[in-house]
Amino acid sequence: MGTGWNWAGAKWWKFDFHNHTPASDDYGKGPDQAQHKQISHKDWLLNYMRRGIDCVAVTDHNSGVWIDPLKQALQELASEGHPNYRPLYLFPGVEITVQGNIHILAILGTDKTTSDIDSLLGAVRYRTTKGKSDGCSECSAVEVIDEIARSGGLAIPAHVDQASGLFTVCSGNTLEQVLDNKNVFAIEVTDLANAKPQLYIDKNLNWAEVLGTDSHHPFGTDGQRYPGSHFTWVKMSEPSYDGLRLALIDGAFSLKRSDCFTDDPNIHGQLAIESIVVDDAKYLGRGQSFSCQLNPWLNTIIGGRGTGKSTSLEFLRIALKRKGEIPKSLEGEFSKYSQTSKNRQDEGLLTDSTKITVGFRKDGSRFRITWSNAEDRYAIEEETPPGTWSASEGDIAQRFPVRIYSQKQIFELAKHPQALLQVVDDAPAVNYRDWQLEWDELVSKYLSIRAQEREVQAGLQEESVIKGQLEDVKRKLEVFEKTDHADVLKAYQLRQNQGKAIDSWEKTWEGSAEQVRHISGNLLPPELDSQHFNAGNVDDKELIDAAAEIRATFKQLQNEMNSIAQRIDDAKSTWKQARPGLEISKKITTANQEYTDLLNQLSEAGAGDPSEYGDLVKQRQNLEDKLKGFNKKRKTLMEHKENAEECLSKLHEHRTEITKLREDFLKDTLADNPYVQINVIPFGNKITVEEEVRNLIDRGNGGFDRDI
Description:
alpha+beta, 22 helices
């Protein structure tokens, strides 16, 4: 049994139903037989231990001589702590040759001894030398089978499809007598491809077909038979005569041959509940903890009314944070499981000091989830290393996914089939939680883009107003510009625009030196962390030198950038000194002076508001700047629309993805299930969609029936 978890209930055990020791005269047959027969009892056992065999039926030819010494050697190996030792269960047995040279295996309980085998051989009137393969009982096959049963053993016809096998030797009445014997319900079949006798088929028999090595050698190569080469997985709680008998009666449900099944049936799912422990509940865990140990397969809690079956499961729901899964229509009926009892008449099943602990296995690790009613506090612990528990973080419902259903919940689920989607979505393969997070991000992004689009659209509505204002300003300016002073005013307007353009151009590069210095300041990488390297090591020294060379290169680049920044400062200073002497600067100054003189003349002559023209010019400039801004807004609006369409497309793709995940999960889960078929209809829940639309337009009570 290859598992690190010794769980309660049945497990699968590697069982060799047929093998031999040096007690059989043909053991080690071949040129090295004498050497093979010298194998010790311990080495014989270790051959099976090294191959991971759990149970061995010792079935020598007409002998049980080696059984007691093997048991003694097994105890010594355990006490010595041999490095290759592993638990091994020995089932005393014997391969009896009966009349007609038919071989029948007799397997007794683990408590039997050599003496019990001798008694059985005497009962079947075996009078020849023990251990001889050609020795023969004086009884018929049916008589030997019945005597094995009377001795408390299991009779298994050996290698029925090979030499000395029941199906190859017997026919007619002799075969029919064995086939009709109720004490036979298992046979050893060497090759499943070999056909059964027609008589076996006609009787509709379905005996369990086991596999053993029939090993006569301590080792071998592929295709040969030796310890561990052939075996049968047997499902039992613990290896015992009763467990083996029940498994053989159960047949294929509890047996897996190694020539048909190459995996380890003890490998279970990555998620499993190991145990439920309750302390100080109203009726459970009073005085001592109530503990329910589970296994990774089907667990059934059996008990009469009021024995705590439902309570155990509902406490599990509390500890694993699954109370929110109870339908609202059933919350009242389940409330007692999470209520603290104040007196004897109170229905609450908790006390102030109730504590619920759930053992959980996940991805090969062990966890404990504890809920305490005193503080309504949850805690997660992980076992690292074995026997040591340390705190672990995370969301319990997300880290430990389980589904808990009561009968009433299932009934509610049947009334609302759409709820089945929630079960599918909770599967790790679907991972709806992460999908929903990404969905919410996309929806939020889409709504944000649309909000920005509406804001820009609202700003564009002012464009016609601005255009009207600009026309009015231009008409007023024409009044001034048609007078004798038009040339002065036009020159002033031109030079103002030129001066403004030069100022704007200066602003685009006047901070360039500071930007270069900022980049230069962050350019040089830090020195290599020397604590991880040894300068005396050749490889480390090579890396240290290479890193230093790179840093020197960056230092040189930093110096060059500082020099560039200084050159920018010099250029800026040169420009500042040169600008006033430029002809255009002089003309701007002249235009400003002429405009000022004109305003003074107008003011002295009382020919209108001297400042009105200047204000109008500024208004026109501001309005023209605003109109230029509208072009930028239109471009921004188009970008928002394109981004919104792209985001909406991603939403469609993401929504389609969850449908695909659901379909793939159901396809994989139900691949080998001929009884259940579930189809996912994309966007097929019209009722839910209609409810959502009505809620959005505030028409939940009806209306717009033809439009929706």
